[in-house]
Specification:
The protein has about 375 residues and is α/β, with parallel strands linked by helices. The protein is built from 11 helices and 16 strands. β11 and β12 form a beta hairpin. α3 packs antiparallel against α7 and α4 packs across α6.
């Protein structure tokens, strides 16, 4: 499945912080075909460092993703969980990102220079409102489903609350309705690593050397949280890297050290440090209850089907956070299914341990589509 990136442009959007951003460009990809009554559209929302290239092989000349499969290619395509022979699947890069959608690295039309830290602070709700503008521009009257994992799950939940009449079902995976203190703490460590890099220059580094060291460390910290203790033990243990004994210095001794440095360096080549700051802040601000803490109020008027999925070894977004969502929906007699899947892969399970997840999602989408036809 060969795909090409597309771009939509909108005049402006009023943000939660009180600022109006203009113009706004949105990078997106589509897979499959929209049916005659436009009832088979599914929006896939990506996680923190993801992008619009969710599936297939990209034909973006000169782009980082050129020739590479999408980040959820094992879930999206003909015969897969999101069957592109049946559904029209859309994925867009989030507002504040650095993969084609307007973000801090974009050119401010007023100054002619990249926004940097003059870019307004954004929220998950702002991201979703931009996605709604995109869906409207495609002439889709109602989405069959919105699905995403991690930060993508936050967006799916926000869709259900902000536009309940516009989406038939949502599938939030390995996510939460608001960050805990620990989750905020990990994000803050990443932000401080970037801002402590002397090359960060208060965010004004676009014509200079980027803060690669700080961003690499931020990614290393983040990547640790995506894995489980068991998966790291199985993958690395205490294996040494191309040596038989310790070097007794501060070079690389262990395989896990080499892996983390590789991940950090690889990340620097494709992600913008300022986008890291803005998107993690949006995650931390996210609270489906708008600060009230009452999930019941948030879901009271929502008449959307839910499939909530968590993973037993996920300690970044532990199962109890998904169970809080399910408990409230059941109390409100909502149409909700919940699966806590066994996996050793930690938070990354939704990306790599997909066999059981695929079957559950496939069945849920089929039943939702049947209900929609019968309505």
């Amino acid at each position: 499945m060969i795909v090409e990136p597309q771009c939509a442009r909108f005049d402006s959007i009023a943000l939660e912080c009180g600022t109006t951003l203009y113009p706004v460009e949105v990078a997106y990809e589509t897979y499959g075909h929209l049916n005659s009554d436009r009832s088979n559209a599914i929006l896939i929302t990506h996680a923190f460092t993801g992008d619009a290239h969710a599936a297939g092989i990209s034909r973006a000349a000169g782009a980082e993703n050129n020739g590479k499969p999408g980040w959820w290619d094992n879930m999206i395509g003909p015969g897969k969980a999101f069957d592109t022979d049946r559904y029209f699947v859309i994925c867009s890069n989030v507002l504040g990102g650095c993969q084609g959608t307007t973000g801090p690295g974009s050119i401010n039309i007023v100054t002619g220079h990249p926004y940097g830290l003059t870019f307004p602070v954004i929220t998950i709700r702002d991201m979703v409102r931009v996605q709604k503008m995109l869906i409207d521009s495609l002439g889709i009257p109602r989405l069959l489903c919105v699905c995403g994992g991690s930060m993508g799950g936050m967006q799916a939940l926000e869709w259900a609350v902000s536009f309940p009449e516009f989406v038939r079902c949502v599938i939030p995976i390995a996510t939460t309705w608001r960050h805990s203190a620990q989750q905020i703490a990990f994000n803050e460590v990443g932000r401080q690593a970037i801002m402590a890099d002397p090359d960060w220059c208060d965010g004004d580094y676009y014509d200079k050397k980027p803060p690669a060291r700080g961003l690499s460390v931020a990614r290393m910290v983040g990547h640790i949280t995506y894995m489980s203790d068991e998966s790291m033990r199985e993958k690395f243990g205490r294996k040494l890297r191309e040596k038989e004994k310790f070097g007794f210095d501060f070079g690389i001794d262990f395989e896990v050290e080499s892996y983390l440095r590789y991940r950090g360096n690889q990340f620097v080549s494709r992600f913008d440090a300022n986008s890291y700051l803005y998107i993690t802040k949006a995650e931390d601000y996210f609270d489906l209850t708008n600060g009230s803490g009452r999930l019941t109020d948030a879901f009271r008027t929502v008449d959307t089907r839910f499939l909530v999925i968590s993973f037993t070894s996920d300690w970044l977004y532990p199962s109890y956070q998904s169970q809080e969502i399910v408990k409230v929906l059941r109390r409100l007699n909502g149409d909700v299914a919940y699966c806590d899947l066994q996996s050793n892969y930690g938070h990354d399970a939704f990306l790599v341990d997909i066999a059981e997840q695929s079957e559950i999602v496939r069945g849920f989408l089929e039943s939702t589509a049947r209900l929609a036809r019968a309505a």
